[in-house]
Structure formats: C-alpha cells, structure tokens
Specification:
Order of helices and strands: EHEEEHEEHEHEHHEHH
Shape: globular
Distance between the termini: 61 Å
Structural class: alpha/beta
Radius of gyration: 18 Å
Number of helices: 8
CATH architecture of one domain: 3-Layer(aba) Sandwich
Mean pLDDT: 86
Largest sheet: 5 strands, parallel
CATH superfamily of one domain: P-loop containing nucleotide triphosphate hydrolases
CATH class of one domain: Alpha Beta
C-alpha cells in the first residue's frame, strides 16, 4: 500500500541517470508512482508524442503559462524551457500515488519552497565516479566536446546545489537505485540512509574530480583548435 502521496524530486547532472531511474521506478511500481506530463519548448524527438511524453509548446505559450501561474516549477536548460504543470501534479496526488519528477536543480528548489519536506522529498543522484559521468556523456555520441565540457561545467554548479537536497543516491546499480527511491518515497518522514560526514567528503572529492575532467576536456579542445 502506498504511503501518503507526495512529490518525489530526482535531480542529477547530465549522465547521472535520473531519467532512467524515474522511468524504471514508474514501470516497476505503477501502483506507487504516477507520471506528471511536463511542458517543454524543445522539439519532440522521433519517438515522442505530444501530451504523452511532454506537452510541446512554443516559447510564447510556455511564458504565457508562467504568467498565468500554471507551473509548479520551470527552468531553462540548454536554451529550452522545461516546466511541471500544477494541474498534472494535483491529478496524480489525488489518485493516491506519489508524483515522481525528473527535473533540474532550479526546479527542485521551487518545489521545496511550495511543498516543504515531508510533503516533498528531493533526491540528488550521481554515479560514484565522475569518470563514469563523462563516459555516459560520450556514449550518447550526439554532442561535441564543447557541449560535453559545458555539461561538466554545469555539473560542478549542480554539485554545489546538491547539499540542499534531502537525500543522495549513488547510481552504480539501477535496481538498487530504484529500490532506494521507493524506500525514500514510502517513508512518512523520508527513508534512505542519513547523510554522514563521509558523504560530504565524497561530494567534495567528486567536485575535484569533475574539475579535473573539465580541465582535461578544455586542454583537448584547445589542442584541436590550435
């Protein structure tokens, strides 16, 4: 039986695996998690359907919705707007299910302000090694070194914001990560292991690793242009 429904926020840098975890959690636990269809200004991908995967909107339509107070949260990422519609969230909560949101750190902050813990719980996700993050970005094979470098720079900022999140998850095993999300969502006061000193040390070291990877990519880019 699902605990009192609430908003479960997943955030991560690009390549962190939040979208994969969110999709797996909804597929494996359809009785616990509902899907809130977000809005975006980016073009649909070939396998995406309007109103099912996203509400695809023009920039004008999106900003009109912001002005009308229709969004729980929204943010701009890589030149496109993404947002969570209040009506979609309330529809899922009223069905008795948790709302699982896969959003950026700015959006997570907006959710925390409107639905303070424990009405919402925010989870920051990272693979255990920054090199894994880089490998996942390279595996996409759709971005230039400049774009990957931008994402690593962005990841450094997101890592700084991670200390504001309620829980952290190391995403090295999908099944384990999904199980942790379910545990955290179903606990009335937030499940998962409490953050300890060694966790903060891990985050600090992770940031240093990201900086080293970003510098290596910068050097590689400079050599290509030189």
């Amino acid at each position: 039986m699902t605990a009192r429904p609430r908003i479960v926020v997943l955030s991560a840098p690009s390549g962190g695996g939040k979208t994969t975890i969110a999709r797996a959690a909804r597929e494996q636990y359809p009785d616990r998690f509902g899907f809130s269809v977000s809005a975006t200004t980016r073009p649909p991908r070939p396998d995406e359907r309007d109103g099912v995967d996203y509400h695809f909107q023009t920039r004008t339509q999106f900003l009109e919705g912001v002005g009308a107070g229709k969004f729980l949260e929204y943010a701009e990422y890589a030149g496109e707007l993404y947002g969570t519609l209040k009506d979609e969230v309330e529809k899922v909560l009223k069905s008795g299910k948790h709302v699982l949101l896969d959003i950026e750190v700015e959006g997570a902050r907006q959710v925390r302000e409107q639905y303070p813990y424990p009405r919402s719980v925010s989870i920051f996700i990272l693979p255990s090694d920054p090199r894994v993050l880089l490998e996942r970005l390279h595996q996409r094979r759709s971005e230039s070194i400049e774009q990957i470098r931008w994402r690593l720079d962005r990841a450094e900022y997101e890592l700084q914001q991670s200390t504001l999140f309620d829980r952290w998850i190391r995403n090295d095993d999908l099944d384990r990560a999904v199980a942790e999300v379910v545990s955290i969502a179903d606990e009335a006061r937030g499940g998962g292991r409490a953050r300890e000193k060694k966790d903060f040390e891990w985050i600090t070291n992770y940031g240093r690793g990201l900086q080293a990877e970003a510098q290596r990519l910068y050097d590689e880019l400079h050599q290509q242009k030189g």
